[in-house]
Amino acid sequence: MENHKFIRNYCSRNHESEDSTEWTEEIEYLDESGSVIFSGKGIRSVEPGVDDHVMVGGIKKPLLNASAVAKMVEVVKRWRWGPDMETQLDKLQFVPNMTHIAQALKIIEDADASLSLFRWAKRQSWYVPNDDCYITLFDRLNSSRDFDEIQLVFEEMVRDSGENWTSSFSAYNRVIQYLAKAEKLEVAFCCFKKIQESGCKLDTQSYNSLIILFLNKGLPYKAFEIYENMEKACCSLDASTYDLMIPSLAKSGRLDAAMKLFQEMKEKNLRPSFAIFVSLVDSMGKAGRLDTSMKVYMEMQGFGLRPSGAMYVSLIESFVKAGKLETALRLWDEMKKAGFRPNYGLYTIIS
After folding, report:
1. Which domains can be identified in the chain, with CATH numbers?
2. Residue 299, CA distances (Å) to 38, 251, 305 in order
3. Beta strand segments in 31-143, E
């Protein structure tokens, strides 16, 4: 028996091929009632609303999402990217929708392949922006450490947001957190500004990740700027960010801002860490704000925390320099009772 080679092609009434291997007979496609919905040579193109179901006996049933997604994933995994993949996707014998795309992206682990499928979907007439698609893409691109592509996809999402669709804040938060964790300071801050301009809100975790990024980069002033934006958005710092923010502000001379956060932290029933007390006692003392320094020192003991030798030294030095020798000597005695031996420098300034 001869093997006949058949090439499966789409065709229309207006484009008929002369290739001898094509199916040249006129084919009529009927609906359930028997009416002709199309006639032409070869296999017709799929049409939305016409090819979104299958017939089981005499019963019209929708095409199973699982079957559609599995076929789409099969095509993408085989070709991965480029014209060949897109040609095969164009030949799918059903009309895809954004549910199919979102589910397929969750299955496809390769970042380049996921991006190729998404780009193809964006060029289709049935495409609508989808938050789940963007979230999955950001997850894939973060896993592959492709932060340049994250920025490009983010900019696409911002453009989509202006076209009768508003992204939920989940996708935006993904971008900020991934970029901040990767220490992409300029890009993260640029994306933050664009999100603000779009009117979308970020969550506490995203603000905290930006604050930590700026603090780690030695930019407490920018960190406090993020905090001020955070306040306006009715978000609050978490305990770990207070632990970073307060000492950083205190050491940089932003003492009022540091004390404001210190009071705010206590009002939220969060327990200040030893590092917070050390930074405030030391910074306030060196700035000559001795009453505040001593108040924080006493408050620390009220929390059951013991002063360190370095804290005693800092306090005694501050009081001596201010001419408060009586208080300095009292602290000297406390220091020795606590088991700390004053160093030579401290003996020098006391004597």
Report:
1. 1-45 (no CATH), 64-127 (no CATH), 129-236 (1.25.40.10)
2. 84, 20, 9
3. 36-41, 43-44, 53-56, 59-62
d(CA 25, CA 43): 11
Q: For the whole prediction, is pTM greater than 0.85?
A: no
Query: pLDDT by residue (tens digit) across 62-118?
Result: 666 787 888 888 888 888 777 888 888 887 877 888 989 999 999 988 899 999 999
Backbone angles phi, psi at 61, to 5 degrees: -125, 145
Cα–Cα distance, 214 to 286 (Å, whole number): 25
Encoded tokens for 289: 């704000």
33, burial (CB in 10 Å: exposed 0-12, middle 13-18, buried 19+): exposed
**CA of 134: how far to CAs of 8, 93, 253, 285, in Å?**
34, 26, 42, 51
What type of residue sits at position 186? E
Two tokens, residue 12 = 């229309």
